[in-house]
Amino acid sequence: MNGQPSSSHAGPAPDDGKTGPVAPRIGLRPLATQTLTDLAYVELRRAVAEVPIYDGDHDGHLDERALAAQLGISRTPVREALLRLESEGVVQTVPRRGVYVVRKTKDELIEVILASAALEGMAARLAAVRATDEELGSLRAHFLEFSDDSHTEPRGGRGIAIDEYSELNVEFHQHIVDLARSDLFSQLVSRLQLHMRAVRRSTMGDSGRFERSVVDHAHIIKALERRDADLVERHVRQHAVDLAEHVRQHFTSAD
Questions:
Q1: Does residue 175 contact residue 139 with C-beta atoms inside 8 Å?
Q2: pLDDT (tens digit, 9 = 90+) per residue, 50-86?
Q3: 36-101 fold
Q4: Which of 39, 139, 145, 179 has the fewest beta carbons closer than 10 A?
Q5: pLDDT, position 203
Q6: What would the 3-class secondary structure string for 125-153 be?
Q7: Alpha-carbon distances of 77 from 60, 72, 74, 104, 208, rounded to whole Å
Q8: Which residues lie below 8 Å from residue 113, measured CB to CB, with a gap of 6+?
Q9: What pLDDT was estimated at residue 157?
Q10: So what's the pLDDT on residue 244?
Q11: pTM score, two decimals?
Q12: Quick count: other Cβ atoms within 10 Å of Cβ 117?
């Protein structure tokens, strides 16, 4: 009657932060909290990636007691970290023998390389768009410092040991993925990283692999600098396909 709306038709009261339904709690831990298992997992995963499982010099066995001693912690968080790595397919428990780094057969390893080719190729496409000029300049300076001015063959003057270049090679491929700025691609590539690092290191000393790698890297960098996403993807894919074919023809220690 007085022109004021009836209370029965009033809308919801404004949310002033003092009233209203309480959101249900979910089981979150503070972000700063890291358990010994978390820390052991990160360190073990990093260290396992360095194990030369395809060189014939390491059987891949991981001694839980020795690992705990090296990390300076008890065996319980080490055991829990190894269980996490086992769930990811990085290590496996062999009854009555212990924990071993997983080694792929030749056919499985070729599949890993081809899967990596697809992922790294697409990551390179993103890098061609997302990397800054400064980042690409740094890429050239760091990874082609041992090449001649044409960047098409190893430079004889400086020289570089196979082990040194092998590490640079691993860093180069990771750097391309990092330049894509994609958490998704980084996570997917990391699942294959252990075996890719091992096979790249194992084959780098084979006849012609070092020289071919230098040339391929130069072509990849040049395509990135041209911002040619199609070309850089082709170069990265072919680089990995050539590695797969090399493994198919020459690799025996994974069988």
A1: yes
A2: 887 887 667 789 999 999 999 999 999 999 999 999 9
A3: Arc Repressor Mutant, subunit A (1.10.10)
A4: 145
A5: 87
A6: HHHHHHCCHHHHHHHHHHHCCCECCCCCC
A7: 20, 11, 7, 27, 44
A8: 196, 199, 240, 243, 244, 247
A9: 36
A10: 95
A11: 0.73
A12: 20
Q: First CA to last CA across the chain, in angstroms?
A: 91
**232-237, long-range: CB < 8 A, 24+ apart:** 232/124, 232/125, 232/127, 232/128, 233/121, 233/122, 233/124, 233/125, 234/121, 235/124, 236/117, 236/120, 236/121, 236/123, 236/124, 236/176, 237/117, 237/118, 237/120, 237/121
Pair of tokens at residue 159: 């020289």
Query: H helices of the chain, where?
Result: 36-48, 64-71, 75-87, 106-130, 133-143, 162-179, 183-203, 209-225, 229-250
pLDDT of residue 47: 87
Which pair of tokens denotes residue 206?
Answer: 């084979």
pLDDT value of position 27: 58
Which amino acid is residue 3, in one-letter code? G
CATH of 106-250, one of 1.20.120.530, 3.30.930.10, 3.30.450.40, 1.10.1200.10: 1.20.120.530
Which SS3 state, helix, strand or coil, does residue 97 take? coil
Who contacts 40 (Cβ-Cβ below 8 Å, separation ≥6)? 71, 73, 77, 78, 80, 81
pLDDT, averaged in runs of 10, over the chain (255 residues): 49 52 58 76 87 76 92 93 92 92 92 96 97 95 64 47 83 95 93 87 86 93 97 97 93 61
Distance of alpha carbon 56 from alpha carbon 228, whole angstroms = 40
Considering the chain, tell me which residue range(s) the CATH 1.20.120.530 domain(s) occupy: 106-250
Give the residue among 95, 115, 110 at the shortest CA–CA distance from 254: 110
